[in-house]
Amino acid sequence: MISLEDRFSQLSALGEKALIPFVTAGDPPLDQLPSILSALCEGGADAIEIGLPFSDPIADGPAIQASSQRALDRGVTPRDVLATISSWSNPGIPLILMGYYNPVLKMTHERFAKSAREAEVSGVIISDLTPEESDAWIQAALAEGLEPIFLTAPTSTDARLDAVVARGKGFIYAISRTGVTGHGSEVPPESRDLVQRIKSRTQLPVCVGFGISQPDHVRMVCQLADGAVVGSVLVNLLAEKWDSGGGRDEVISLIRGLKDATRA
Amino acid sequence: MLSKPDSRGRFGTFGGRYVPETLIPALEELENEFERSWADPDFHDEFNGLLKNYVGRPTPLTEARRLSDATGYHVVIKREDLNHTGAHKINNALGQCLLARRMGKTRIIAETGAGQHGVATATVCALFGLKCEVYMGEEDCARQQLNVFRMKLLGATVHPVSSGTRTLKDALNEAMRDWVTNVEDTHYIIGTAAGPHPYPYMVREFQKVIGEECRSQYLDQYGRLPDLGIACVGGGSNAIGFFAGFLSDESVELLGVEAGGLGLTSGQHAAPLTAGSPGVLHGSYSYLMQDEDGQILGTHSVSAGLDYPGVGAEHSFLKDLGRVRYSAITDEEALSAFRKVAELEGLIPAFESAHAFAPLFQPDFQPAGTRIVVNMSGRGDKDMESAVKLLQL
Q: What does the radius of gyration of chain A's CA atoms come to, in whole angstroms?
């Protein structure tokens, strides 16, 4: 297992920024996840976010909502997801679990953190858990060597950014706009201001997500930030084209195009 | 004394604030504005003036003679059905709209199940000239069609929600997503006592007029307090407002009635307090219906307003404290009560409120002569189309 912070140091030495694709565990079917992860690595992903499906994803737009629902309809559970990740021979890429709080709470913080560590996961993002409510979770995550990652938004006050940078590990996730996940035609200007406000108070890397779908978006984000998270466009491509390895070339080509945009 | 949530918005261990980061500043702004306004006599003057002259408060307390004869109890009914728009929901919609105006928000969104909260919100928005958009599950749009028409006539836009179970839970999800996107100019009027802090507390404060009025009316009319108060519980706004008047009176027992749907053993119900377990949904830690992996379960109730897998945090607190007892009533029992109350008292309760009447007809519910107040949270006009089908009228 490689930590996110180490990965960002390596990239920095190479003069590159991070490309972090997001994939929903269980959509396409869970047995496809290992080969999807391998394809993302081949395309040049620097870390991968794996979405844990939840029945009521209030921070997600239509693409990831529908994807989560398909995964749940296939009966995917957090335990299955973690077992599948464990079975994948990870070539050394940091994995990040991204989900909602109730499934974590139901499994208990300690068991969830332990299972994630056993699956060689590096970081965890919980979309509806803010620093104020996360004492117990942070303690459990740190005890297992996981990096708890927190989200910031253009609406976050300076005081809230201080709270996030004081507690977050791995990187700080900057939400590009007020809104849910999904396509945007351009990177909103307020995201630059947010990245600058975060950078002025921490050495931690900053990655921008939500509405990032094209190489131009990634290029723009990487002018200031340390990486870009790309979700819905990949989720949609996988849903449309991935068929037991079919569509692999298109996935690799999408990721490669986005990764190239992270190189100055 | 009514309990106030702690600085983290918790009643005991329940409540809190579990939402995407984008919304936290808006919740902080709302909390501050509510605290400021609720301490401001001018706000109370405006709120109380509108409750009196626009909503029609105080609502009567009606002695139910034939219902008392039929059941052997002494039953009186708190008449929230007589509020303008036909339910208690307008108390809260009005209070939150006044806050939205103070915060300079120009756009209002709401979720609705039975449509009563949507209608109340659309009504108050018309009164103040605010733009109003309401999210309502597709299934609920069909079974409460009359309320969809009312909202449209009042100038609101109704967005049918086709995701998930297409009921109240999904309407709430969609309203949250709208709020995350448009938080700068939009206030989200949550209609129930659930959701992230400060909603459970604020909604109780706006609804406690029900219980405070009722207590004082009961004392005036009978020179004593009732033995038992009953209210239906979906998210729990009418119940918490009604209970609030009596929580300090140890002699008054309180009963919250959840939707038992096809029966608790069927799994087809909406009774998180009776048959669920604590977890996080829609921004707060409270009892809810979930599977072993923490996914939220689908619910069933004949009543769209109770068809919700979560419940307000203060109810969870009162349940664990043992101060309020919670039970569940099946669709069949509720429909039977709906018909009996109409025949015996000339009152047609909402399907939701029919759940609160139903225990009166259960064998050995209480000792004969028990003095009971039932909170009739709303009137049943909206349910006539469903009643025609279900009761073969």
A: 17
B296 contacts in chain A (CB < 8 Å): 55-56, 102
Backbone angles phi and psi of A71, in degrees to 5: -65, -45
Question: pLDDT class for A206, splitting at 50, 70, 90?
Answer: very high
Phi, psi of A237 (to 5 degrees): -65, -45
Dihedral over Cα of B312, B318, B322, B327: its sign: negative
Write down the catalytic residue from B78, B89, B208, B382: B89
Q: How many CB atoms lie within 10 A of CB B385?
A: 14
Containing H/E element for A39?
A: helix A33-43
Which residues of chain B have a pLDDT value below 50? none
- Put simply, the answer to whether A128 touches B19 (Cβ < 8 Å) is yes
Q: What percent of chain A has pLDDT over 70?
A: 100
Are the beta carbons of A172 and A204 closer than 8 angstroms?
Answer: yes
pLDDT in tens, B112-126: 999 999 999 999 999
| Cα–Cα distance for residue pair B304/B352, rounded to 1 Å | 8
For A237, residues 6+ apart whose C-beta sits below 8 A from its C-beta are A247, A250, A251, A254
* Catalytic residue status for B29: no
Contact B195, B268 (CB under 8 A): no
Q: Is the peptide bond before A148 cis (omega within 30 degrees of 0)?
A: no
The CB density around residue B211, as the number of other CB atoms within 10 Å, is 27
d(CA B77, CA B276): 29
Range from A37-46, A157-166, B1-10, B253-262 carrying the lowest mean pLDDT: B1-10
- What letter represents residue B49's amino acid? G
Taking an 8 Å cut-off on Cβ atoms, the answer to whether B293 and A153 are in contact is no
DSSP B21: G
Dihedral (Cα; B353, B354, B356, B360), 10-degree rounding: 150
Q: Tens of pLDDT along B160-194?
A: 999 888 999 999 999 999 999 999 999 999 999 99
B277 is catalytic: no
B298 Cβ contact partners less than 8 Å away, ≥ 6 residues apart: B165, B309
Residue A60 falls in the annotated catalytic set: yes
Helix (H) or strand (E) holding B159: strand B157-161
What does the block give as tokens for A156? 């976050």
The pLDDT score that the predictor gives to residue A57 is 96
Backbone angles phi, psi at A252, to 5 degrees: -60, -40
Whole-complex ipTM = 0.95
CB B190 within 8 A of CB B168: no
Of residues B86, B297, B305, B268, the one with CA closest to residue B194 = B305
Instruction: Give the angle A186-A39-B295 at the CA atoms, nearest 5°.
Output: 75
